[in-house]
Give the backbone structure.
Amino acid sequence: VSVESGTGRIGTLVDGVFAIAMTLLVLELIPSGSTEGSLASLIGAWPKFYAYAMGFLVLGIFWALHRSIFGHIRRSDEILVWLNILFLLFVALIPFSTAILGQRPPSRGAVVLYGSNMIAVSLPLGGMWWYATGGSRLVAPDLDPRLVRHRRMAFALVPLGFAVGVGLSFVSTALSLGLFSLMAVFYIASSALLRRYRDGEHLTGSGP
Amino acid sequence: VSVESGTGRIGTLVDGVFAIAMTLLVLELIPSGSTEGSLASLIGAWPKFYAYAMGFLVLGIFWALHRSIFGHIRRSDEILVWLNILFLLFVALIPFSTAILGQRPPSRGAVVLYGSNMIAVSLPLGGMWWYATGGSRLVAPDLDPRLVRHRRMAFALVPLGFAVGVGLSFVSTALSLGLFSLMAVFYIASSALLRRYRDGEHLTGSGP
Amino acid sequence: VSVESGTGRIGTLVDGVFAIAMTLLVLELIPSGSTEGSLASLIGAWPKFYAYAMGFLVLGIFWALHRSIFGHIRRSDEILVWLNILFLLFVALIPFSTAILGQRPPSRGAVVLYGSNMIAVSLPLGGMWWYATGGSRLVAPDLDPRLVRHRRMAFALVPLGFAVGVGLSFVSTALSLGLFSLMAVFYIASSALLRRYRDGEHLTGSGP
Amino acid sequence: VSVESGTGRIGTLVDGVFAIAMTLLVLELIPSGSTEGSLASLIGAWPKFYAYAMGFLVLGIFWALHRSIFGHIRRSDEILVWLNILFLLFVALIPFSTAILGQRPPSRGAVVLYGSNMIAVSLPLGGMWWYATGGSRLVAPDLDPRLVRHRRMAFALVPLGFAVGVGLSFVSTALSLGLFSLMAVFYIASSALLRRYRDGEHLTGSGP
């Protein structure tokens, strides 16, 4: 198998972009000069730390999803490469749109930008799964079809959820933020608690 | 085979530089303070987002070309290492020259700088392909000679196209920008749509 | 074995975050404009260089501990992934809390922030070792139980030490800083000088 | 062989730090605001571009040396890890000391800082080679002893050359800069032109 058709370097590039985006969050959200280091001013800065933690976990979710998808992809082609670069283009924007959202109180524009960014990240991510699994194009031919279907549905629901959140911002930005937080918490809880059972028992074709 | 003669760490270094350059584009092109987060101001900032997307895709093109070349290179030597460092030296300048180009309206100096940067990136990239394939120096001896010739020609045409663009800037900077955009769009379209057929059918000697 | 269940990409992401955090220390602690480059002003800036070196070594310690843990972990699951992302969330804060601590004289708030950051980094790190080794969940079944126990104890002592340091800051911040430095020096000395004997002779089950 | 004793993650961390240091050079040496993008102002900024290129090539030299050393190292231990972290501690300072040196005219303090930084990078780098090859501690037992000796000598000469450069700065900073440039040019020329013959013909024990 030619190196060109492997996925090793796609993983290295993606991990690099995520590592930098995660570290840039600190610079964007908690500039060094923003606190004098007294206990009171540090405690008063808790909304910044909260925004940082949320932004970090969202990046963590997308990284975990990418890793999980590429755990099943065996080959690459130019279309996968370009879906992946499109994915990274919007991942690199997350620290920016998270910082805009971190301004208090968040404006409707900030919520729309953030939600649109999340949709723009989700679409090429889901697109890679749809493309790679279509006719077992880039995955093992014996990949469990229930796993393929289940994830296809999940990847279609994620941008839908964010679209609803963007729509809700025209009623109340607090509602949008609530929905976004709920989706993040729900994903982490379900993937850490449920997926081990689900994949391990009846969905995964590959071994542990 | 000694680790020293492999290409693994060249790939890690290159992926790291690209990951950082891609993420720095956001900082250079869309500083956090540049928008108050209202819908109107975000929409008004669209030229910045456009410049960001273009800069990102150009970095994506050069990354994809590097990955594609090194998919065929089997060994490394010091000359390859230094051509590669020269390549990175100019890749790391791309966020800078893209930011200069992003100033509206773009001056002739900005176009000349940008075009020269692209030529300076293309030459060592093409140089690596010419050097590695000459006498099958660093590639598999059975690499399809048509693939070698085809890419050699392509790598000679890229800097030529940018040189024409730089020349056009003395007529009109808009013409130069048009040519640069056309080259990027043409590359992505042709590589995603045509290369699968081309390489898959009759040019590649290696498997899928 | 499925790629998804390996630990390769966890390592790449972690190494990327550490590489950036290490390099950001320079930007946070020694801004270019902070010295005019005369010998006298450079020598006068020694506390900044000292703070930089300390911060770098602490990042080095956590990196070495992570690498050492993952040298024994053979598989991954979602819980490990999320403990790891939590670990990175606090690692990325280290340059920030080190910079706050670097302000002279360090306030109690700075010491509490720094110590809390260290505790917050240590807990998920130790958590990964406890989780992975519990019932040989993610490690080789023949891993020496003495090595497992020894490290479990060590990972419980680290956050305890930092908690004592945070408590001491209410007596004297100098005492806290002394304890933190002592812990770092002790770790590096003991790991470089003693661990080769300890692991090599009777604790490691795996080969050299 | 345990993963812990391999050198894979040392390479990833080192490549990450170099990738970031190389990219930070642009930010330190050529801030976006420093030029208005007219042809005249860009040409007038050539000393900044020259300083950038020199800084990049020096980082390239140290990266190539590290890669070359680790091409022969087969195992790792804690002492190698800590020599490596010490090496990175000073590598991460290179963009800073290069930026100080880039101020025109360079002061004696800047030359002393730069030279000292180079010495501080060279010592742990050479230390790794001495340590790893002593009694074939971490290298293959059949590594050509002439290669070991030749490189030991080279790694002892590098810090000596920089020490001479630092000393010369008390006569004339221009002399120091001349020596530093000469050393860089000589290294790149000799490694690219001569090493292929030398290693290939009679020094390397490992295959191509």
